[in-house]
Design a protein that fits this description.
By secondary structure, the protein is of the alpha/beta class. It has helices spanning about 5-20, 45-55, 110-125, 135-145, 160-180, and strands at about 30-35, 60-70, 90-95, 100-105, 130-135, 150-155. It has one domain (about 25-180). The protein contains 5 helices and 6 strands; from the N terminus they run H-E-H-E-E-E-H-E-H-E-H. The chain has a 6-stranded mixed beta sheet, sandwiched between helices. The longest helix is centred in the C-terminal third of the chain and has 22 residues, at about 160-180. It starts with 5 loop residues before the first helix and ends with a helix.
Length: about 180
């Protein structure tokens, strides 16, 4: 069997997402913010930091739901299947200012996993999505799903102190974007 090209995989995932949501209305997705990087560049770590920061910011955000990767398998059957590592997280927060629901999904190296995360968050009535994604997934799937998606780039740094600084800066950048949009 011939191996599929990334563009075919992403087109198939987009088609499946739209098929699974017959009443899918792209207008339900107000914003997508994606932390974009290859595997091992700190996407999950940064988004988990963001979740932690937002859950402690009770003035601006109310945490409605958090599910850790170790519990993804106990997810009810009626929901799209979430896939991720033990450190992955899905969280739903509500803006205290606008009452908009923001979904954050940290698992993002593969398009089908990102697609399932978006489906899950759509079913939870989120309107803004913060996702981890591989550059190909961002370019050929997320930007096709929502053409005005915002990408924040991450990359590998071989220095622990600089990595921590990048995680914090990316988390702060996403928070700033969220506060502007939500």
């Amino acid at each position: 069997m011939a191996r599929k090209k990334p563009s075919e995989i992403n087109a198939e995932a987009l088609s499946n997402l739209l098929k699974n949501h017959n009443s899918f209305d792209r207008h339900k997705i107000k914003n997508i913010i994606s932390l974009v990087g290859v595997s091992g560049t700190g996407k999950t770590h940064t988004l988990n930091k963001l979740i932690d920061d937002l859950t402690h910011d009770k003035k601006h955000w109310t945490c409605e739901f958090i599910l850790k990767g170790e519990n993804f398998s106990s997810n009810p059957q009626s929901e799209p299947k979430l896939i991720g590592d033990l450190e992955d997280t899905v969280a739903i927060l509500k803006s205290n200012l606008t009452q908009q629901r923001v979904g954050i999904f940290t698992s993002g190296d593969y398009t089908d996993i990102v697609s399932n995360g978006i489906s899950y968050l759509l079913n939870k009535n989120c309107t803004t999505f913060v996702l981890a994604s591989h550059p190909i997934t961002f370019r050929l799937f997320i930007s096709q799903l929502h053409p005005v998606s915002i990408g924040v780039l991450t990359h590998y740094i071989d220095n622990t102190d600089l990595q921590q600084k990048m995680y914090q800066q990316n988390s702060n950048a996403i928070k700033s974007i969220m506060n502007t949009l939500a």
